[in-house]
Amino acid sequence: MEAGEEFGPWLARQLKLANKTQAELAEELGLTRAAVSAWITKRSVPRPTVMGEIAKALGTDLGTVHTRTTDTQAGLPVTWYHRPGYQDGGRDGGNAAAFAFDADVQVLARETCQNSLDERLVDNGRPVRVRYTIHELTGEKLEAFRAAILWDELQPHYSAVSESAADQKVGRVVDAGVRDMFEKGRLILLRIDDYNASGLTGDDYDDGKFAAVVRRQLESLKSGLGAGGSYGLGKATLWATSALGMVLINSTLSVPHEGRTERRVIGRLELPWRSVDGDAFAGPAWLGRPDPETPNAEVVRSWWADEETVERLYLTRDGDQPGTSFLIVGAHDVASLEQGRSDSGDDEDENGGDDGTRDIRAMHRRLVEALGRDFWAAMTGGGSKLPLLETSVRTVRNGEVVIEEEKVDPSDKQPSRTRALRAFYEGTTVDRLTEAGQVALRTVPLRLPLSGGGRGTLGTHPGVLLVTAAEDDDGVPNQVHSLRGNRMTIKKSGVSGLPLGVNPFQAVLLVGRAAGDAAPFAEEAEEFLRAAEPPEHDRWGQTEELTLRWSHTAHHRISRLTTEINTAVKDLVVRPRSAGSQESAKLRKKLTVPRKGTAPKRASGPALPELDGLDAEIGTGGEWRITAEVKLPRADELPGMTPVVLLDVRSGSRPRLDWAELVAVEGCEVEDGVLRFAPRARRAVFRGSTDAKSHPVRTELTRLVLELRAGAGE
Fold first, then answer.
1. Which end of the chain is more exposed for a tag (fewer CB within 10 A), N or C?
2. What are phi and psi of 17, to 5 degrees?
3. Sequence-distant (≥ 6) Cβ neighbours of residue 542 within 8 angstroms
């Protein structure tokens, strides 16, 4: 149940909303102005018999006056307020903060989930629950929603933006969004609900979380040191993902404001500068109730909406748990749309035709992928350690289910890494990997600098490094995922200098609070690494904040940490070679690399990548399993090279074998069987398995030749 507001402040606001004075109310009630003033100042309350007269004067029912959990509907109606143009003639072509991120639902998932983690209510020990709902509207449902957001009021502003769209990037996006809605007769809503979070607390204008999100830019008011965000930019992804620049908000507060907590609603629109009927408008607009305390009651503020209103706006929340619902109106995802055009899978009906849900199915799939990739650690618990986060995605069309709610399972998306983290929480790690399924633990030192540019070391924080065997579902093998207090994956990196043939592994680095609250200098490491993150929070390195608060060389401490990590990983995963291994010697004899001395001379020209090392074994299915290292010349751009595997024969042409699998390990990507090399990389490693069906003779009786050919390798 909501807590009712005190009568005096509630009555004062209702009089302002109704544009009515205390004297006018007193006259309607047949009382003195002093009696009404005493109610307003909380020196007394009206008798029960007078409550009914007050309800009649305010145009509401007696229950509303008694409970005082909502405003009366009398007075100024909900409307859009558009910020006037600057008096000095300045113009903004849109919100610059939105350009810090791409219009990509995977980026949106990373930023919004991080924000929800930062606002988790920690006292009850429960995780924050975040649910993404993709909802496509068509036909009557779309028309009803346009009426609910007062589209007729907005139409002239969108028309003005479309007229000047050729001159503005934001204008072109908005124009395309409006045309998509009318030409295709559809609108995609993407809603993000979090529960067990603080909600948008605080005043509409003064310092607080509400004003930081709804009113201001580049302001970050996080709940703790372990928070992921620090720039105040992540919220911009909400508006960047809307082709219409519109986001509606419904918040249930953890701390009452104006005596209540539920259904605090407001909308914000981000458009570029525009001129409508001769009046200039700066850019943003807000949907709310006009504030009587502002000049001419033009500026709008949040309002306490009734259940019918939030239902029409598709903002109804489940239960009364604190948290916030963000509704992105006209959600678009360029990356998923491109992916959806090339996918040939499950979004087609049994007759091979598109059932019209391809785009929203692609969005659904990419959201699930992003949540599992970036937040697997926050969703993992073990021992006495509980998960920090639960996430799910569901997709509907006009209220009808297209894809059932899918709860993201971290052990399904990241099996090896979740196994490693659980072992750490449960205290079942080992010093060495001797059996399948084990998790090895090492500590790696992060030497923290003194703040203010002082020489020396504040202290050494022991980061926790976990290493375990990789599984097929983990994605790219031989990677280290690094995370700190909020357990979001910050940095993903390979391990340099690994020898060929190392068994695939996955590693997890826990630093700051993630290493345990009892870890020495955990708070200091958290603060240091947070300052070393860019707005995308996807790596640690040199940043302006790191330079200002520590020194211009502080990032070298992170480089040393990386060196310590690589050394520790190699010590755990590299097996000493047995000098007397006859089997290895036999296999090496069967494997041939064209040597520089015997290779035909090439005409002078740009240097090409060259094979520099090979390792191979025969698999259980009779296939060759090959790991190859490529030496890359110094060049700004290298041509694609095709690995070709041939049988070595005494005479005649060498039979070519087919690849059953060809994957990149380091410094390259595989695209249609061609290796594409990373810029400025000096070495690359790839791994492949031949198709045993293409072998003309038994594998044990053959010798192998591996070549790199420029281009498609035909």
1. C
2. -65, -35
3. 532, 552, 555
